Amino acid sequence: MNVPDIIIAVDGFSATGKSTFAKMVAKEFGFLYLDSGAMYRGVTLFSMENGMIAEDGTIDETALKTVIEDLDLHFRNDDGKTCLYLGERCIETEIRTLAVSSHVSPVSAVPFVRNYVDKRLRAFSEGGRVIMDGRDIGTTVFPNAELKVFMVADAEVRAQRRYDEMVEKGDTPVFEDIVKNLAERDYIDSHRETSPLRQPEDYVMDNTHMTLHEELVWCLGVIQGKFGILEAPALSW
Ligand code: CDP
Question: Cα separation of 190 and 3, whole Å?
Fold first, then answer.
């Protein structure tokens, strides 16, 4: 099935499986996948490593503001996997720790941080045929995206998925810490002043009880309906 050159925005609460879904769709249809959360995590890691976040979580916004436009955060494709780089350093592992997760929502609520990330995302997406996941892609970064998906899932299921993901990477997380972190981030992300997480009107997917294959079939159905494609879909798996 020929999917047109469109921009697909995938938004939703923390750990609803946005990146897994977006990567799968990107692979299936030959789209570029961009993880906007990774950019916010990258700015957070940089701030932590450079003493711009105090122990009580206070952000030194003045210091961050003076360097942010020079931050060279970009994606590279390493062996088929998209990885975030800070200059020449791959920071893909470091940005996924619970320490970064615990500071990322306050950092991403800072307007000049959002401005920096938005600009970079738009530059990376020139030409279209992109699927991007985040909190404000369909509402702020690409309000004209041709397809907007909003993902939700039950809180317990989300925490369990994130727990399993971290254990698989060799971490030893405490389940309750993850539950707490997801709840805190959901709250901050939905209540901040600049580009809060909001459900756009288009397509809502509750994947609490869905397999990945069911998600892909769902997405195909949506694309067929939206673009009037009658051709029978042939999935690669
Ligand atoms: O993977 P997970 O859902 O846990 O989070 P993420 O997509 O890596 O995003 C990490 C954090 O970055 C979120 O909790 C938000 O605070 C922030 N974020 C944002 O504000 N806007 C985006 N478009 C993407 C992420």
Answer: 32
CATH of the domain at 189: 3.40.50.300
Domain count, the chain: 1
* Distance separating alpha carbons of residues 71 and 86, to the nearest angstrom: 7
Residue 95 Cα: closest atom of ligand 1 = 8
Q: How far is CA 149 from CA 34, 139, 165, 198, in A?
A: 15, 11, 23, 12
DSSP helix/strand/coil, 224: helix
Residue 124 tokens, joined: 């990376």
* Mutational test site, ligand 1, from 7, 33, 185, 198, max ligand atoms within 8 Å of CB: 185
User: Residues 40-85: pLDDT tens digits?
Assistant: 999 999 999 999 999 999 999 999 999 999 999 999 988 878 899 9
Q: Which domain holds residue 215?
A: 7-36+97-224
**pTM of this prediction?**
0.92
Inform me whether the pLDDT recorded for 232 exceeds 90.
no
Residue with tokens 């509402």: 139
**Residue bearing the CA closest to ligand 1, atom 8:** 37
